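Worked example 3 (structure in, sequence out).
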């Protein structure tokens, strides 16, 4: 495959415009168009179609665009790691993680890791589950930690670590505090929901679908676990939350559990890597060893 033509097509797809890609790359628009058409002939299907003043990707074009993005992200990752070796020789570990592992699991693991390997640099980026997997696929992260998704990505290896319990909570003085009710009754309360892409939100909606219960009434949507729990602790709404994040709030009588009939929720935590990696570098294998010993 003509890598130069693939690179031009990728830039056209990113900008949704042949003319903008040509301007950015400082080559003529006809030259970009010709390269994209040659690529279409090479792969055997149409990649882009005209739409108004811009372009739109065909389904096959979308597929190739996603694959080419990952290819050039890998190229950038290789260049970045070469520069690290040339200028510092220090191993760097880039971690992408969802909020729950970031706040309640990684701190102790990374503390032991840095005590054992003080010269190694560690970068941690916290996102929702969908963004974490995207970061890993596009070589923005070396490894990732997530709570189970509804579907596992076929290009990711998911290594099970542990189960975490989830429960429903309300403000401490709420009329349902400490009571046992049906899932339908629980869904009638105003819920604090997480943002799109949150595994906890996906879990709640899947739970309603499984038990044929209408989805929750949305009282508020917040980006982040801590913000959501604090809102409930301040006196408004109900939510589904991991028990590992609730100890202080329960002990200080800021929130209370509500027990839902027939519902026992546990979610697995996974350590994730890309498939088909040629070898696992020491920076990753050493962290895996520390996690297994914890």
């Amino acid at each position: 495959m003509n890598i130069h033509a693939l690179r031009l097509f990728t830039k056209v797809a990113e900008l949704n415009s042949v003319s903008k890609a040509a301007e950015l790359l400082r080559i003529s628009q006809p030259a970009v168009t010709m390269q994209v058409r040659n690529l279409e002939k090479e792969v055997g299907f149409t990649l882009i179609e005209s739409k108004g003043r811009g372009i739109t990707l065909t389904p096959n074009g979308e597929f190739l665009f996603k694959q080419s993005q990952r290819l050039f992200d890998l190229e950038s990752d290789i260049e970045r790691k070469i520069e690290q070796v040339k200028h510092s020789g220090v191993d760097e570990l880039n971690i992408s993680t969802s909020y729950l592992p970031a706040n309640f699991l990684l701190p102790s693991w990374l503390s032991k890791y840095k005590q054992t390997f003080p010269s190694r640099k560690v970068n941690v980026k916290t996102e929702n589950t969908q963004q974490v997997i995207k970061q890993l696929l596009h070589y923005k992260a070396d490894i990732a930690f997530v709570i189970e998704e509804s579907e596992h990505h076929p290009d990711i290896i998911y290594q099970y670590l542990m189960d975490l319990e989830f429960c429903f909570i309300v403000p401490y003085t709420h009329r349902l505090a400490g009571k046992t009710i049906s899932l339908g009754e629980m869904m009638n309360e105003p819920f604090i929901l997480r943002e799109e892409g949150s595994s906890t939100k996906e879990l709640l909606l899947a739970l309603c679908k499984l038990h044929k219960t209408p989805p929750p009434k949305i009282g508020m949507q917040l980006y982040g676990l801590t913000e959501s729990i604090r809102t409930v602790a301040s006196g408004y709404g109900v939510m589904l939350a991991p028990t590992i994040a609730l100890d202080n709030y329960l002990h200080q009588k800021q929130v209370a559990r509500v027990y839902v009939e027939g519902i026992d929720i546990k979610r697995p935590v996974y350590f994730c890597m890309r498939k088909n990696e040629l070898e696992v570098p020491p920076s990753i294998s050493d962290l895996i060893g520390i996690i297994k010993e914890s």
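Notes: The longest helix spans residues 59-87. The chain has three domains: 3-83, 84-162+269-293, 164-267.
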